[in-house]
Each structure stands twice: as C-alpha cells, then as structure tokens.
Amino acid sequence: MTTSQVPEASTCAPTPPVGQLPRPKEMTQMLDVSSLVDADGGLIERSIYNDERIYKQEMARIFARSWLFLAHRSQFKKPGDFFTTYMGEDPIIVTMDKKKNIRAYLNSCRHRGVRVCRADAGSTKMFTCTYHGWAYNLDGELQTIPNQQAYPDDWNPKDWGLVEVPNVQEYKGLIFGNWDADAMSLSDSLGDDMKYYLDAFIDRDPEGTEVLGGVMKWTLDGNWKLAAEQFATDWYHVNMSHASALMVLSPTGKGPKPEIASTPGRQFTSEHGHGAGFPTHPKSRFDAQTVHEYYDYDFLRERLGDDRVEGPMTTGHATIFPSFSYLPVNGSIRIWHPKGPNKMEVWAWVLVDKSMPEDVKNAQRLYNLRTFGPSGIFEADDGENWSEIQAISEGFITNNTSLNFQMGIGNEHEDGTYPGTTSELYSDAAGRGFYRQWTKLMNTPAWHETKTRPAADKEEN
Questions:
Q1: Is residue 49 part of a domain?
Q2: Residue 425: helix, strand or coil by DSSP?
Q3: How many CB atoms lie within 10 A of CB 324?
Q4: Is residue 160 located within the same domain as residue 287?
Q5: Computed over its alpha carbons, how large is the radius of gyration of the chain?
Q6: Is residue 258 part of a domain?
Q7: Are residues 141 and 263 in the same domain?
Q8: Could you tell me which residues come within 8 angstroms of residue 1 by beta carbon, excluding any fewer than 6 positions away?
Q9: pLDDT in tens, 18-37
C-alpha cells in the first residue's frame, strides 16, 4: 500500500425506500476501499479519515446497517418520556410509548422535513412540527393535519406517520437501534465474548445500572474512527499522552511506578469489530477512593469471577463497533457522532450501579468529570491527538503515507483465561479487527441496496 488514491466507484445502486423516488445512478455509486486498508498487514491509508466520498459511504454502509447506541433504559420512566439523538447524521427521537415499549423515530416531519422535536429530552403526548402543525402520537402516527380537507379524498394520513427505526433492542439497560429490520440480533452481534467484557462493567450490581444527570456534549476536530479505534485498541498511548495527568493523580506526584506503568494485560478483538483492552492485576481496584471503599470485592469475585475482577472490571477501555465506547473505572459511556469526515461530536454519560448510595454515585460522577469529562485531564489529551492527526491529513505527501497498525501481529490467540481472541495489552490487534470489519461492511451492499439493477444499467456496465 503505497498510495491513498481512492478507487473508482462500483456500480451497486441502493433500492429506494418504499414511497420514495429512485435516486440518480451517479448519486448511488459506491467505492471499493480494499486498497485502503490492509488489516492483516497492519497498514491503513489516511484518506479513510478525510475523503468526503468515503464518509458518505459510511453513512450508507456502516451507520445505516449497524447497531448504534441510542439511550439508557433509566432515561425513560413513564410513557411520553423522550430523548433525542442521532444515528449517523440522522436525527432520532427515542421515546416510551403507552405500552412502555421503547421506540425510535426519524426526527423529521413527513411534510417538509422539519424536526418534530427540538428538545434534548423531556416528556410529551405528541410530537408537533412547528412549521405547518403536523402532529404525531407516541406510536408515530400522524394525528393532526391542519386544513386536511385540502388534500385529495383518497389521501390517507396513515401513510404519513413518522419513519420508525425498525429494530430497537436492549442489552442490560443499553438501548441500540438498527435500520436493518433483518439484522443479526444485538445479542448475537455482541457475541458471548464481548458480553463477557461488557458485563464486567454493567453487571456488577444485581439491580443493574442507571445514568446520572444528563448527557455531556462537546465537538472535536477529527474523524469519528480515530476515537472509536483508540478506545478499542490503544493502551499504548497512555504513558506518553497522559504523562502529566498520571503525575497529578499519583500519590507522589511523580507518576506511576514502573511496574504499574508497564502493566501486563490483555486485549480482546472480535470478528464483529468490537475491541477491549485492560491491565490485569490481583489487586485491581477503582480509582475513586469512595467508590473503592464501597465495593465488596469478595462479592464481585463470586458474581463475576476472579479473572474479570482482576481485569476488565476496573481500568480498561472498549468499543462496540462502530461508535459506542466505555471506560469502566470512571463509569463513562459515550457515543462518537460523526459530523462530516473532519469533525465529531462526543456525547458522554456517567453510568453507575443502581444500588450505590448517593455519596458513592456522586464520588464516581466527580471522578468522571475530573478525568474524562469535557474538560477532564485525560480527555483533553485524547482530543488534542485526534485533532492533530486530522489537522495535517490534507497534505499530499502526508495523505499518501500509510499509517502503522502492526504492533502485536501474530500474537493473537485464545489464551485459555479470557474468552475470544486476545493479545498482549500493548497491541494493535483490536484496531486491525475494527478496520477489518469496517472494510467488510464498506465493500458489502447493505439492506437498502439492490443486487439486481434495471436491464439498461446491466447492459451499460
């Protein structure tokens, strides 16, 4: 891989959604990205971070077909409670209907396309467009149409309800949505291996988890994959990028001891693109002293097993492909919302065990803000790195120089202790797995694309 030239477009065209006009062929051509990612050899071309055509294809083949985090169950207490978010760049309303089912809708009026909900969160009985007054109930049905008599006699409001996300599923309080009605289930997409690591975070308490307060939001210059990939695979940067933060947090003010700084650990990589990394230590503990003192580690060992308590339960990092990441030690869950190829919006919540006393929850919240909040001492380091990568990626030579993801090649195996394919903690294995899945989806027609095109198109090609 010596060049990041984007390959010519393929000829696969999307199938128009029901009730919509077909798009011109030149607007539906897809790129073959095979030459831009060598996951087995550990080389990545930088154009995958800044090419507008690649970004548009991600919207169609990554975000329109993957399980995307929507909200946490604790954000919905009664029918009508709602939270607005995004799936890719599509605005979404997540709400609880009258039967207390969680449902998700495209936040766009079927009349002229204005958002029908402008608030971040709240409770309502109807979602009303402020442009012409079309109003929809909690089932997404069009209920109010001002001057309806002006429409043809055979015009049926039932045909013009909100576009519903057809696949909404939940795993232990985490709610995900998928535009593909026939997609592999969320549970199967996670797989038993990823659930093992995830449960070390969200299944410590028999009562489950809840989010504290609202969502924290901030914008960064940088492609969304830079953040998602780091949280999947990169412990390597910690001692360098976070050196000053580690000094501040260490008891001596000189940083962690060498045996801690060079800690052993494992990194997990999934065939579905998920990844997790974590140090392993028999005395693994939570960093916030109040949180550490609250936990009964003997109970946790009985519930989760020694290996999880010594590994992924506390200090570590993980990404559920494509864009949901979490940090167990400070209860941070976040989504990387793409905002064009060169910008992302970070949305982060504080996630705690329900059974925690209020003072322990608050201690975890404060530690979260201090470390990985919008102005956290670790968060600022990460954002600076991603922005720096993006800032120089438009240079001709820069953009034609491959990036190295070769650490740990050949060391991936099943270690007999932690499930799935793992490697040493200092490795790019999960990064290679992330981009292997990315390439697979980018080169595979999604549910909304057709395998058979009109005869004229076939003859033309």
A1: no
A2: coil
A3: 22
A4: no
A5: 23
A6: yes
A7: no
A8: 35, 36, 38, 41, 43, 45, 402
A9: 456 666 665 668 999 999 99
